Every structure is written in structure tokens, then in C-alpha cells.
Amino acid sequence: MAVWHTCTYPKVNQSLPVGVRQQEIEEKLIEEETARRVEELVAKRVEEELEKRKDEIEREVLRRVEEAKRIMERQLLEELERQRQAELAAQKAREVTRTPERVG
Questions:
Q1: DSSP state of 3
Q2: Are 10 and 29 in contact (CB under 8 A)?
Q3: CA distances from 55 to 65, 69, 97 (A)
Q4: CB 25 within 8 A of CB 9
Q5: How far is CA 39 from CA 7, 34, 46, 53, 68, in A?
Q6: CA-based nearest residue to 30, from 6, 9, 4, 13
């Protein structure tokens, strides 16, 4: 059984001689094929660039997250040290008020 493929041919001026019409048809088909191939290549290139940048973006996000973690950890340690110093100062103040001064 024969399978018929439908193909759309570009519109050409029917008043032209057959050889000129044939050449015009071929030129238009070549243009269409070229446009299709260019479109495919552009799509492929865009996909490749997005994939490449995806990895770069992920690395940059991870770098920023790690940097933020280090900053937060440093700030937390500094705050804990300030609290510890304040607690020590408060403890010393309590000891001074509890111990009566000895007069000699």
C-alpha cells in the first residue's frame, strides 16, 4: 500500500515559464529548509547555554549560601561571647555585693 506524504509547495507565479517556476520553487524550498535548520541550531544552542548556566547558577547559589552561613555563624558566636561577658560581669557584680568588705 502506498503512503502519500503531504508536502506544501511554496506559491509561485504561474505566469512564469516552467523552468523559472521550478527554479523559484527550489529556491523557496532551500530557503525554508535553511530557516528550519537555523531554527533547530538556535534552539539547540539556547538549550546548551541554559544547561551550562544552570550549573554556574547552582554553584553561585551554593557559594552565597555557604558565605551567608559563615557570616551568621560568626555573628552568633560574637553574640554568645557578648552574652557570656555580660553574664560574667553580672556574676562579679553579685559577688561584690554579697561579700561584705572587711575593715581591718
A1: -
A2: yes
A3: 15, 21, 63
A4: yes
A5: 20, 8, 10, 21, 42
A6: 9
Tens digits of per-residue pLDDT, 65-101?
999 999 999 999 999 999 999 999 999 998 888 766 6
Q: How far is CA 103 from the centre of its chain?
A: 75
What is the Cα–Cα distance from 78 to 63, expressed in whole angstroms? 23
Please give, one letter per residue, the 3-state secondary structure of 4-50: CCCCCCCCCCCCCCHHHHHHHHHHHHHHHHHHHHHHHHHHHHHHHHH
92: its cell numbers? 562579679
Contact criterion met (CB below 8 Å) for 10 and 26: no
- Residue with more model confidence, 8 or 71: 71
Q: What is the pTM (predicted TM-score) of this model?
A: 0.45
33-63 per-position pLDDT tens digit: 999 999 999 999 999 988 889 988 899 999 9
